[in-house]
Amino acid sequence: MKAIYQIGDEVIFHDPNAEMARIFAEMDPTYKVRSVQPGRGFVPKFQQLRKEMIQTYTPLIEMDSKELEEVFSRKGGSVMNIMKGEVVSKFNVLHALSLSSLSECRLCGWDCGVNRYKGRSLRCGLGKESFSNAPFDHISEEYSLNPAIVTNFRGCALNCIYCIDYESLSVKDCAPSDPGKFWDQVLKLQRQDFPVTALEFTNPTESFPGLMEILGQAPDHFNLPVVLNCHLYGSRSFYDMANHVTDVWLPDLRYGNDKCAKKLSGIDDYMKYARIGLNAMRGSRIIVRILVLPGHVDCCHGPALELLSKYRDDCWVSILDQYIPEHQAYLDPSLNRRPTKEEISEVESLVDRYGLRNIAKGCDDFWTC
Q: Which CA distances in Å does 81 have to 48, 53, 54, 127, 220?
């Protein structure tokens, strides 16, 4: 677990783990970790891609982005059906395509076009390498993802003044991600008492090539759904690639207008990119998170939920009430407090008003629909 906060009469547990579950059970004998499992026969998308083979006469490393896109679009087959040329998996082609994107990076809404092989972006602070924190077990995710093994990528296109994980976003003095070590840690976490439901990657947009490198070294038997928890400021090219390996999208829809997004996260054209992301995710399982920000129900959460009403058949909604005034939240007077019960209740009522599916009220059909 990352931290325990006491604010007034409230005690808030930030990212509680399996160890905390045992403590919760001692405090309350009726406590249990709620979970909706996908089933033993589930096969993640990235594992399917690893088994789908493509024939090519040119080494992937010699291809540009357009050539890689053309190869990836080809219908794959089994090794037995491919007799000539070089045989590669569709996963490897997608990995190569993600790496090629770093030469003129346009993964996020800043569209900066920086060659990350030669230097770092001034927006996210990332170059060619990715950086991630050690994976940990999380027992308070949405029921259909809970418990989850979670890892956070460092470096972010947003600069949220209230970011609770602000210390972990810097890449200064960090070692690059180590896929071998990552999987050793994941498999160790899987051997705990709790049946893990999903593998969740937080902040994957700017680090998508690093995510692909990690998935490329996954054990063949690994069969947990891959969840991408993203900030909805990604580009269409990011979603076009990531859709092929994402089993569940878990986007944060923080704002309902560009003005608040600029003021609180320092980004431009937020609503444009939020719509790009929601449109691109259609056809996948989507859980849209709404973190209740104090003082922003009318300007942000109301319009955001109205926007989601256009996607009511495509997504579930998850209302998060654990906002804590951290980092530089004091810079905005409205953010320098916890949301009130009335604000949280109003947001939940808006979910019902717009006919949205509140995942906290039931998601037993999440993995079957």
A: 17, 9, 10, 39, 21
Q: Do residues 220 and 171 touch, judged by C-beta distance below 8 A?
A: no
At 128 the pLDDT is 96
Residue 42 CA to residue 53 CA, distance in Å, equals 21
**Domains identified in the chain and CATH numbers:** 3-44+117-361 (3.20.20.70)
- Confirm if 292 and 301 have CB atoms less than 8 A apart: yes
**First and final CA of the chain: distance in angstroms?**
33
**Is residue 55 classed exposed, middle or buried when 0-12, 13-18 and 19+ CB atoms within 10 A define those classes?**
middle
pLDDT tens figures, 313-339: 999 999 999 999 999 999 898 999 999
- Please indicate, yes or no, whether the overall pTM of this predicted structure exceeds 0.85: yes
Q: How far apart are CA 217 and CA 255, in angstroms?
A: 36
* DSSP string for residues in 133-149: PPPEEES-S-GGG-SEE
Longest C-alpha distance within the chain, in Å? 69
- pLDDT value, residue 79: 54
Q: pLDDT band at 8, cuts 50/70/90?
A: confident
DSSP helix, strand, coil percent of the chain (3-state; round to 5): 35, 15, 45
The pair of three-digit structure tokens given for residue 204, joined into one six-digit string = 């994957």
8-state DSSP, 190: H
